[in-house]
Amino acid sequence: MRIIAGEYRSRTLEAPPGLATRPTSDRLRETLFNVLAPRIRGSVFLDLYAGSGAVGMEALSRGAASVVFVERAEAALKVLRANLARLGLTVGFRVQTGSVGAYLRKLKAGQAAGFDLVFLDPPYEAAEEYAATLDLLGREAEGLLAAGAFVIAEHRRKERLEDRYGSLKRTRLLEQGDAALSFYAVGMDDAASE
């Protein structure tokens, strides 16, 4: 695994051992960031189920203003912190330990955020996490997202996510190998998306 472009281009990253964490492939990350390129510089990025942190670190490398990494697995947190140290990153990020749902509910209570881009990649086996997190972002915690925010979910190609979760509406689906990326925009009505 490596950083694909930007300030930390070609720097290698570690992945947590075992099969519990499945890092986003370099190729899929490249596809993701090609789509996000016009929006990444200066953005506030939220990396949910962060694992090794590769997606959030790619965002920092490409000019995101800040990244919040949310992860609860100890092995993944250890690797994430080691990857941040390997890149020499000391500012521009925050690591939140614990569950994604608890973090989003806590933020909602404080009503502070304004995330421009949110990436979520729960373990494929935890299929219920997709609907739970997208529902939280599109309904209960929608105030955490900036106007015009994008939410991107990486999932199995065979697993179909809903087209809408509250204020989130899917605008694009990219499939690559066994994986897919569903892009959701905030606050799009049906007329604006046609």
Your description of this structure?
There is one protein chain. The chain has one domain: Rossmann fold. A hairpin with a 2-residue loop joins strand 6 and strand 7. Helix 4 packs parallel to helix 5. The protein has 6 helices and 8 strands, in the order H-E-H-E-H-E-H-E-H-E-E-E-E-H. By secondary structure, it is an alpha/beta fold. The termini are far apart. It is globular and about 40 Å long. It has an 8-stranded mixed sheet.
Distance separating the two termini: 38 Å
Q: What is the helix content?
A: 25-40%
Q: C-alpha Rg, in Å?
A: 15 Å
CATH C-level class: Alpha Beta
Oligomer kind = single chain
The rough form would be described as globular
| H/E topology pattern | HEHEHEHEHEEEEH
- Tell me the CATH architecture: 3-Layer(aba) Sandwich
Instruction: Characterize the main sheet.
Output: 8 strands, mixed
Task: List the defining traits of the structure above.
194 residues; Rossmann fold; eight-stranded mixed β-sheet; globular; disordered C terminus
